[in-house]
Queue: 3 jobs
Job 1
Amino acid sequence: MTCTENEGRIIEVLLEVFKNKNLVAPPLAPDTVLERLGLESLDFAQAVIRMEEITGKDPFATGADFQIRVLADLASLYD
Amino acid sequence: MLSQFILEHSTAHDDEVIVTPHTSVGWHQLRDQTLLMVAAGESLRKRRVGLCLGSSSQSYAVLAALDKLNCDSFLFDERLAMEEVIRLASNLRLGAVVQPQKRNNGSALEIREIENEENGSGNSTVTILTSGTSGQPKAASHSWESLGRPIRRGTNQSAPRWLMTYRPNLYAGLQVMLQCFADRGTLACPDSEMEPGSVVQFMTDSRVQYVSATPSFWRRLLMFANVEALRNIPLVQVTLGGEVIDQPLLDRLKKIFPHARLVHIYATTELGRCFSVSDGLAGFPISYLRQPLADGVSLRVQNGELLVQSPNSMRNYDRYSSGQRSGGDWFHTGDVVEIHDDRAYFVGRKSDLINVAGSKVYPIEVERVIRVIPGIADVRVFGKTSSIAGEVVACEIVPAPNQDPEALKEVVIRNCRSELSSHQQPRMIKLVTQLNLSSAGKTLRTKAL
């Protein structure tokens, strides 16, 4: 499965989060269900900060209510 | 008081009083400069006057002259842009802003009149402008008596040589200057932007014996300067203040200066000097909380916060200050302490508290873990706004020379993971070449947005 640029970025950022936690990351793909990754909300906070550093955007800062299930949903917020 | 130190003390020999990397000024010259400033400043008598204060003999001569002229002196950092000084002075309803004449013509004093001035108190006072986080400083008014009260006369050897590491316009800088002048000593003033190596060279050349500085100052010196050269400076006393003091730093200083008296001081702009600790241990004995201390200071802890009553306090905030005092007799310091066994330890400022998804984290709890990692020169922990968690812990680390930064970052992550809970762990780690210090020489605690 090919990735969009932002999906690729999210995967890299999540791999870093797993590495920091000293955990082996499961295979990550656009259709990976995020809540099954076993990450806590602070890990996602970290990923969002990292994405902001990379893209200059923080889609969550608007306070909008997002429906995010899979990795591609999260990545699309940065498109 | 300052004018008395300078004008009324007669001495046969003309020892040096102020040395900088470029100049040396004797007591006679400082007295002459002060007399010149008094004459030049006659129009300022009993008025509210702003002074851009540097650590030069001319600057101190102006301050002494304003004392002699019974002015209410408001002290500004000389590095502040003049437009900013005028703006602040105008808000404070001052009558004029002065500084030593930089050009070589006319009067010794450069005076800028400001409209709309409030009447002076008629007494000689000193107002210190605190580095307010909101941009508008608080203006803490002291009498010269309250500033001079903590000065110990005659306990030091005669003519001690002090290193000036603080900004001269802030409380700590005034204390060092007054203590030094009261003992007829010499104030060695390095340039404010000096590299650590040059500072040590200057300390050696000017033969300093007393150093009063923030922990941040020392950490920078210990990491980047030649420790052997430091060891060769025969210091009599090492005084720390202005920030939380940790045990590893005290131990390190004790090792480098085994013969020096090692003291740490708790003081604030508003309360003045509160107490000192000289047993070489971080924190302070809880016996300090039980009864008033020798010079009349009382301490108490309420909801973890240190409250103080101090006879060394300011008189009040100036009536045009941005902050005004609230509450009763006890002053709320904003410093949080924890008590373990028979000792009280500072854990940080209430305002530094990082709220990570509802869990409270003090930067110092995290800094303590990172600071002991070999290869770390310095660290600053702060709150970073997070759209998910409110705030998360972030940090900046300064690698020691010849360290692989990426490898060091991994060690930091690993140690934090094993020693801190999830909400305490830094979620953003930046490698920097040096930390930014505030004008008071303290590590900046500003939160990142």
Job 2
Amino acid sequence: MKPTIIGKKVGMTQVYDENNVLIPVTVIEAGPCPVVQIKTTEKDGYEAVQLGFDVRKEKNTSKAQLTRFKAAGTAPLGVLKEVRGEAGEVNVGDVLTVAQFAETKKVDIIGTTKGRGFQGVVKRWGFAGGPASHGSMFHRRGGSYGMCQWPGEVLKGKKMPGHMGSTRRTTQNLKVVKVIEEQNLILVKGSVHGPNGSTVVVRSAIKAKPSA
Amino acid sequence: MNAIINDITKEQLKEGRDHFKVGDGVRVHTKVREGDKERIQIFAGIVINRKGSGIHETFTVRRISFGEGVERVFPVHSPNIVQVEVDRESITMRARMFYLRDRIGKAANKVKEKRLYENKR
């Protein structure tokens, strides 16, 4: 299993690097993440490792889940996420911490974007819209929806107004600036999608160049 | 501010960087790296703006250089700043002295000086 951990986006700040350059960073409070279950092809039809995060009170956990946590020997957890792939050396009950990212240079971050509600085509798809004045009467509309009798229907995937945000997205190849093991923190360069306090998954970058 | 973020930035804050304020004439000593060599460069002028808090705090220094107004923004807690010398203190009626930008000639550097004022009394 590649280094992976579940965390919480804390917020953004700035830090000085070794060249005394002020760089923007996003702080992620990640782990400790106990391994709750290991799924195998024989038993479950696919290979995966189930990680937990965020300790909850026992009374706030359903009995069905409680038995699973007891079987794994962990405290009741609020967040469970699966990481596809063979477990390798990881066993049930192991606790994964940010220490696994100490040598990592780049990470991907998976999370949910901020919800924007129902949005028009200008904000949602970047349409140019029309002139504001001179009686254009065409301001933030999307224009034509398609052709006439042929094909006689709106093409599939036509960009239209609708709900925007609140979707799962991955930000790739973010540079790891610092890993603070005592406080379970990872600092990555640049911004991370989603509101502060949202749950994110941090994994070592899958498209990073070997040298980088 | 978030307690965790406060914790991270706290150790990077420099002590003793609050001795100058808007309106002061200052000489900012900064480290400049040229190849392998490092030397100290001085930028002298009037502080016209000081804004932000914590690690984000910056100040703007304005000077007239060869007849042209030059402004430079420094992060207050930058490790590249060795020292901020205060040449003269002044009395200001503004938190932001942007009105100096509209002034030409001698008036461009004219700020009511604190010491002069005190002497008169």
Job 3
Amino acid sequence: MLSLTHFMLLSGALFAIGVAGVFVNRRHALVLLMSLELILLAVNTNFIAASHYLQDLGGQAFALFVLTIAAAEIAIGLAIVVVVFRSRETIDAEDLSEVRG
Amino acid sequence: MAFQTLLFYLFGAVLLTAAVATVTLRNMVHAALSLILSFFTAAMLWMLLEAEFLSILLVLVYIGAVLVLFLFVVMMVERHTPTIHHRRNYRLVALAVAGVMAAELGAALIAPDFVPASAPMPAPLGHSNTQALGSVLYTDYALAFEAAAVALLVAIVGAIALTLRARPDHHRQNPAQQSRVRKQDRLRLTDGRSEPPC
Amino acid sequence: MDIPVLAQIVVGAVGAGAVLAGLGVRVLGPKAATAITIAGVGLAFLASVILAWTYAQGSAPQAVDLYHWGPGGYGMKIGFLIDSLSVVMMVVVTLISLLVHVYSIGYMRGDPGYVRFFAYLSLFTLSMLLLVMADNFLLLFIGWEGVGLVSYLLIGFWYTRARAPSAGLKAFLVNRLGDFGFLLGMGALLAGAGSLDYATVFAQSEALAQQLSPFAGLSMLSLICLFLFVGAMGKSAQVPLHVWLPDSMEGPTPISAMIHAATMVTAGIFMVARLSPLFEGSEVALNLILVVGGVTALSMGLIGLVANDIKQVIAYSTLSQLGYMTMALGASAYAASIFHLFTHAFFKALLFLAAGSVILAMHHGQDIRQMGGLARRMPVTAATFAIGSLALVGVPGFAGFFSKESIIEALAHSDLLLAPTAHFLALAGVAVTALYSLRLWCYVFQGDPRSAEAEQAQEPDKTVTVPLILLAVLTLAAGFGVEAFLYGGLLGDALVVHSAHDTLARMAEHWDGILGAVLHGFAAPAIWLLGLSLLGGYFLYEKGYAAKLAPAVSGLQSVLLRKYGFDMLYENWFVRAAHAVADACARTGDQKMIDGLLVNGTARLTRRAAATLRLVQSGLLSHYALAMLLGLVAALGYLLLRG
């Protein structure tokens, strides 16, 4: 019998993997973006699971908005990566430290 | 019931594996493909949760458009990517933070005041998740929906503005200039005699 | 014309002259400025005379309420109280001012600050008029401060000279000290009576006398009077706040005449007389006034014996005469005080302007040791100076006789505790006055010229001599106002005297007309003293015994030359202490606390904080992400632990 806890454990694990990915791939801007996608996917899964178990469509609506914003974010993020790549021939995030105090 | 549980574990296992592969694989293309796989299995899980519309949406729009865009960019910059080498101590920090986070999330689930709702009855035949979601979106969440649309528009404009570059070697038509042109600019009347070379 | 219109003409004309000349300092030529200011003062004088005529025929006091600028009931308004006292003062002020204006045409000719000078002069007159015409303490205070301010400007008029600016500053600061007392007095008045309007306050004087002040044993009224008298001491240069007056001689001579005769120094006397309903209720204050006046009268006269600057001698004589006026106030003989102020205004203006004439002839030399024998070369100046001196000394028949003799008489009749002391001091002062006046006369006008300038001295032109002659005539005439002032009730309705100390009423019993007073005067002890001291002075200065006597009294002489050490005391203690305090404030307060700690400290703190905080800004994406996630972990942990 599947319960809410199952899905939440799963999305929690997914979330943790995403977080770990952010740190492990701290130099590679593209993989950073991918890790962020994983995190958002975990969040969305959580929303939908809660929506299903609480019988409230609000969770799904929220997931839709998260998807929308995530798509926008990816569009801008990729554009930035492209621009950075064009001007610097690299996407190493460790090199992008002009704003260093 | 047992079949659904089986599916859950199956997709869950695939999802987590693909996710781990996404963040660990050195090959960027492989990583991107793993990301697509994880999204795909997540869509299957959402189907289990009776969120059919979002599930299809994730596959069609997200995987079909966004992640493919990802793949393009990956392929474009792949040759120049830094060789990914993980520093050991940093990876330990990463795992520690992620571990603590996972532990905390788990602790939240087993906390005494977290009472999971019992599984609802499956939706009756003929129930349309799309219709239900649409009726919610266009009534209760109309404003947020519009705002999300604007956000997307801004993202489109922003992405184009960022990546567009003027190519001086490209010849383009300028309709404004074309319509403003007068006869004198283009036409010169001569008396028919040949002109000496200048 | 009715009284309010005339009163407004007086103030308006002088004010317009002052403002126009002041605003037009860079535009107006000397002639225009002279015309404007003299026209203003002249008009004011005419209006004052008409007013005086009205009041001489017995008009009732009239309040002219023009404008209220504060909440009602506190007396914050511009309003005039026109009665016999203020009218007398207005006549004196405008007349002396007019003469000084005319005199200044000749005296200041060619001075680069000519127009400025006339503007100041009119402003001075305006302030003084506001002071005497006010019907509430605040307007009085405005005039009071205006006089102080303009005196500062005028004493330091020749600001390029070495000592003029500091003399002006000294006058201003010492006056501020007195003003502080005055302000405290006003505050106490507001606390006690709840108003600053004369009429309201006077009506409550009985109640104030019953009220106890925070200081044990003093009634509220006494406290108010003592504070107010401190203000009068500053303005009227009473010991120990007299130090500014001799130094004020740094200003142009017409200013000295103005300050000493008509404005400024008489302000304190006028103020006490105006507030007679208050002072009458406080014997403590009256006793203090008596003794302060007495000490001033004698001690300042003595310094006049050793001063060598012609203006300084006259300045010390002013101080001494102010002492007499103050004593008269103390003895409740307010009318006598105002009368002495009245006569003094004329003969002291005369003396100063005559001295100015001498100074002009000496090419701005003021040392009497350089003069001598000027009587032959400057007959008009000498004659008028002689008239002024005789009036000052108090020879029977001359103005000073009537006024000063009345004061001494009043002191003899007073029942106050310290009246006998004051009487003695006043008598001694008469002798001293005679001595220094004779000394001055002998040094300046008798004997042989002691310098090249003195040999070539010439009478200045008419703008100088005409005011002198006019003033001399007025000086001769002024004394005969004694009957009207003291016994005729000219000031009767403006001054309030308790029957317990009504000295003038007692004197009135013996009064038998002016001729009788003159004849009687020859028998008075003061006149005997005067004759003796004139005789002694004749031998000392004319026959040259002074030089032989000098070594014997060198100790006394050095004390006098140091002016009893007041200046030294103030310089060494107060000025130095103030400097030390200011220095400490500047160093620790301003430089260290404000500049160092607050201003630079803020900058330093910001810089240091920024230097520390910028280390956090590594510019590395991962660090920011880590920080965010650590925050998330912490927030989650907090939520879990809270349960």
